[in-house]
Design brief:
- The structure is a single chain.
- The chain has a six-stranded mixed beta sheet, with helices on one face. A five-stranded mixed beta sheet has the order 1-4-16-8-5, with helices on one face. The chain has a three-stranded antiparallel beta sheet with strand order 12-14-13, with helices on one face.
- The two termini are 20 Å apart.
- With 271 residues, the protein is of the alpha+beta class.
- It contains five helices and 16 strands.
- The mean pLDDT is 94.
C-alpha cells in the first residue's frame, strides 16, 4: 500500500524508534487512496475499505472534527460515538485513534513510560491542541511532558500558507514571533512551482507567511516536551501532489469542497 499510505517513526533522545517494534505505528493515507472524509451521519465506502486493511485486530476510533482544542481520553471504541472534537488519547492497545487532515497538521503522541498514545488534528484554530492532549495525559495517567515523543506530520508549510494581519498577530501573540514572517513583494503560494496567487481579500493590507511547524514547536516546548523527542516530517501537502490538499485541489478544481481528505492514525499493537 506504499502508494496509498505513509508511516512515520517516533524519535527518543534523537534516536529513531522502529515502528511496531519500539514504538507505535504512526501512519497517514495518501491522495491515491481516495478521500477519507468522516462524518457521523455519512457513509464513506472508500474509507471503510482502506481502514479495514489498516485496523488488523484493532478497532478504529474516529471523531468528527470541528477545529477545536477538544481532546478525549477513551477506553473503548464506542467512547467517541457521535462526538465532535479534534484529538484522542488512550492506553487501550486494541484501539487505533484516527483523525482526518487536508493541509492541517496531524500530531502523533507517544509516552513510552505510561504507554499513553494518541493523535490530534491541528489547523490554525487548533494550534496548541497537542499540548492540551499531553496535559490531559498528565491529569489522567500521571504522564510527564518530558517523556512524550511527538511526530509533526505532513501539513501545509509557510511556502504556501499565507495569512492576513489579524491571523499573523494572533500567532505572534500566542506562539511567538518566529512562526510568522512578512510576505515578500510579489510573493505567492509556491505549490511545488505552480505559483498560485494569493486569494486573501485583505483590503490591501499586509500579508504574512505562517509556519504551523514553528507554532506547534513553540507550544510543545513550552509544555515541556524535549526537542530531541520531536520528529518533524518535512513535507508540504500543498507542494507534494502525493497528498490531498485543501489549498491546491480547491484552486485547481475551482470547487471549494472538492479536495482529498486523508486519514491519520496511530496503532500501538506492537510485535
Amino acid at each position: 500500500m506504499n502508494d496509498k499510505l505513509l508511516t512515520f517513526s517516533f524519535i527518543q533522545n534523537g534516536i529513531e524508534l522502529k515502528p511496531g517494534k519500539q514504538a507505535p505505528v504512526a501512519g497517514m493515507t495518501l491522495r491515491a487512496a481516495g478521500t477519507m472524509r468522516f462524518r457521523w451521519n455519512e457513509t464513506n465506502p472508500t474509507r471503510q475499505l482502506l481502514l479495514q486493511k489498516i485496523r488488523g485486530s484493532g478497532e478504529i476510533v474516529p471523531v468528527e472534527l470541528i477545529h477545536s482544542h477538544i481532546v478525549y481520553d477513551v477506553h473503548n471504541a464506542s467512547d467517541t460515538h457521535n462526538l465532535q472534537g479534534d484529538g484522542i488519547i488512550t492506553t487501550n492497545t486494541s484501539l487505533i485513534p484516527t483523525v482526518t487532515v487536508a493541509d492541517c497538521m496531524p500530531l502523533f503522541l507517544w509516552d513510552p513510560v505510561t504507554k499513553v498514545f494518541g493523535i490530534v488534528h491541528s489547523g490554525w484554530k487548533g494550534t496548541g491542541i497537542a499540548a492540551q492532549a499531553i496535559n490531559l495525559a498528565k491529569q489522567k495517567y500521571n504522564s510527564r511532558p518530558e517523556d512524550f515523543c511527538v511526530i509533526l506530520g505532513p501539513h501545509i508549510h509557510d511556502c504556501c500558507y499565507i495569512v492576513n494581519q489579524e491571523r499573523a498577530d494572533y500567532f505572534t501573540q500566542n506562539f511567538g514571533a518566529e512562526c510568522v514572517k512578512p510576505l515578500e513583494e510579489g510573493g505567492n503560494c509556491y505549490c511545488g512551482g505552480r505559483g498560485f496567487p494569493v486569494a486573501w481579500n485583505n483590503g490591501g493590507g499586509p500579508l504574512f507567511r505562517l509556519s504551523l511547524e514553528k507554532a506547534n514547536l513553540y507550544s510543545l516546548e513550552k509544555a515541556g516536551v524535549k526537542k530531541e523527542n520531536i520528529n518533524i516530517i518535512n513535507e508540504c501537502t500543498c507542494c507534494n501532489e502525493r497528498f490531498g490538499s485543501n489549498r491546491r485541489e480547491t484552486v485547481l478544481n475551482g470547487q471549494p469542497d472538492s479536495f482529498t481528505v486523508q486519514a491519520a492514525f496511530i496503532n500501538l499493537q506492537m510485535d
